[in-house]
Amino acid sequence: MVCRYFCSHSVNLIKPVLHIALVGNPNSGKTSLFNALTGLNQQVGNFPGVTVDKKTGHIQLADHLPAELVDLPGTYSLYPRRSDEWVAYKVLMGADKDTRADVVLLVADASNLKRNLLFCSQIIDLKIPVVMALTMTDIAVKKDIKIDVGGLEAELGIPVVAVNPRKNKGLTELKKVLARVAKTNAGIQTRDFMDTEQLAPASIKAVQQLFPTLSNYAAIHYLINHENFPLSQTEQDAVEQIEIDNAFNPTKTQAEEIVQRYAHIRQIMKQHVIETGPLEKKLFTDYLDNFFLHRTWGYIILLAVLFLLFQSVFWLARFPMDGIEWSFTHVSSWLDQHLPEAWWSNLLVNGFVAGLSGILVFVPQIMILFGLITILEDSGYMARISFLSDKLMRKVGLNGKSVMPMISAFACAVPAIMSARNIENRKERLLTILVTPLMSCSARLPVYTILISLVIDDTYYLGFLSLQGLVMMGLYLLGTFMALLVSYVMKWFIKIKEKSFFILELPIYRAPRWKNVGITMIEKAKIFVTDAGKVIMIISLLLWFLSSYGPSNRMEKVENKYAILLQQLPKQKDSLRKHLSSEKLENSYAGILGKSIEPVIRPLGFDWKIGIALITSFAAREVFVGTMATLYSVEETDGSSLRQKMHAAAYPDGKKIYTLPAAFSLMIFYVLAMQCMSTLAVVKRETKSWKWPVFQFIYMTALAYLMSLLVYQLFS
User: Fold this and answer.
1) Residue 7 pLDDT > 50
2) Are strands 103-109 and 53-60 parallel, antiparallel or unpaired?
3) How confident is the model over 326-331, as a mean pLDDT?
4) Beta bridge partners of 109
5) Rounded (5°) CA angle 468-469-474
6) Kind and range of the H or E element at 686?
7) Is pLDDT of 282 > 60?
8) What values do phi and psi take at 160, rounded to 5?
9) 569 pLDDT band (50/70/90 cuts)?
10) Strands 103-109 and 130-135: what pairing?
């Protein structure tokens, strides 16, 4: 499904022999460098044992040396607090048996070098091969910051390469340096950045007797965090005893280390970096923030951005979607005319082709949605949305850090829920997890699209405001409003008392990386077709079988009935064949299933076919369209498009099925219902209990049913 497939994959083209760990502070340009080096040859999964994204890519260094690049989560130092920081920490400490680092590629922001050098100095003291990639050099120039790269390299004792991933500058040199370091270990500093041994000399020597390969600084980390390392019980007890024997104080040691490191860093900055005073140089970003973060205009601009986002999804995708739909309609008609009457031709046309059309027709919207979201992220505006929303979030029991998972859920709830691990406060994290699925993920997009096109006129106001786009935006805002409302109610019942703080680093405004936008659009389209497409296709073929076959006695009775009628009324052959197809569908296995739940869903304005789609949607929401395509193709083989068939669908008394009240009721149900097995599974993993996913499923389903009932009764 969409919520699962956004965490997926690619094909390994090069067999890696060298493992490079890409590390750096958040917002240092790490992702830009990763994308520039790997291009489309990358994959996303999870680090083993934790729900933290693991991005890997394959590159070829100088001298045709293949390497695997692992993008570790961003962190400010080697003292982790969040789960994603622990992932990076364990890899760098060699405590992760599944991910190793032969070479560390450290990304440092040239425009904020002092802060970045803390993490860099810590890695140097671990005595592992490291190369520094100096990014944001163009921003440093705008800030009148001049860096002596050669002097910095000599001072640190590691290779330093200035790069600009956005313009592919310095990448060739970086690959050469990485290859050289891999072959000669040239990136290992021969002297310590600081004298770490004097922090706890007796304790360090005792640990090094147990683990002779550890550097002085690594030994300190074994003393502080040995419980989190894969050591035997004997080794754990030995390190614990060393702490006791030497009265080792981890808090005091860490504080002294940081103070001494910054003292050395200030000397380096004084010798090799020339900075203009902060008040003397004001970036264009500061002027923009006066406008975009204004207490009034900021929110108006935010609403305008969201409005344009959803208008564009409809406007830009309209023509390619119409073209794909037209193509499949003609392919189906041609196959109907030229294939013999056989079960396999029926399977091909009404199972395979109908299912495939339900997949490909929405690819343009998926690509456009993710392309626009990537532009917002690259430009730096997405972080401003978190900043603007913090005040509102706190009123409903959340904080500004909840915004990013909730916005991410517009794409997919699964990685969005995983990203909630960055929220330190347990109550706010749990509330974020419980309400995030109410945000309309892109799996709902195909459902909204087809239902809006059925009952909402393609009308434009002032020449550019699409009525369909306004309705689409309304559905997304409804999901957001309900998420905030539910969070406000739940905050009174979840009894976890814990203070929270919201600290956010705002990146500078930059032009989007169009290559990155293109890569994201292609990757999301590919994953949608291959991953979500598999689910849709399997369910489409299964539905074809269930809707084409049924209990032999019932199907035989229907066929005999219409065989007699065809003999008696030969002039009504076409009409009788349509009635025969419709009645066979009602008596098929799928029809029996749909009819059995129809009494429950009829008050919502749904017929038995919609009931089947609601059941199949628990595997993947977007399967709704594939289900409709299969059911209506089995019943009607006149070559018309799915939208035309659904528009003409009627009850036996002639009343249309997809009226405005029924369509709105169905859209409301899909906005609010928990129809995603993958999301429930990941909630269980994150909360380590079935209590919360079960509660989530019950409250969302009940809320969806009641709201749909209310909407249908009000509009009917």
Assistant:
1) no
2) unpaired
3) 80
4) 135
5) 100
6) helix 677-687
7) no
8) -125, 125
9) confident
10) parallel
Q: What is the DSSP letter of 650?
A: B
Neighbour-count burial of 219, counting CB atoms closer than 10 A to its CB (0-12 exposed, 13-18 middle, 19+ buried): buried
Please tell me the predicted confidence (pLDDT) of residue 408.
67
In the block, residue with structure tokens 């009940």: 702
* CATH superfamily, with its number, for domain 2-196+258-274: P-loop containing nucleotide triphosphate hydrolases (3.40.50.300)
Q: What are phi and psi of 424, to 5 degrees?
A: -70, -35
Q: Of the segments 106-115, 420-429, 515-524, which one has the largest average pLDDT value?
A: 106-115
- pLDDT tens digit string along 183-195? 887 656 667 788 8
CA separation for the pair 345, 472 (Å, rounded): 37
Start-to-end CA distance of the chain, whole Å, equals 33
CA–CA dist 187, 129 (Å, integer): 4
pLDDT at 74: 84
Residue 18 in 3-state DSSP? strand
Intervals of CATH 3.40.50.300 along the chain: 2-196+258-274
The amino acid sitting at 567 is Q
- AA letter at 239: V
**Residues for the chain: how many in total?**
716
What string of DSSP letters covers 526-569? HHIIIIIHHHHHHHHHHHHHHHH---HHHHHHHHHHHHHHHHH-
CB within 8 A of 175, min separation 6: which ones? 37, 59, 60, 61, 62
pLDDT given for residue 133 in this prediction: 93
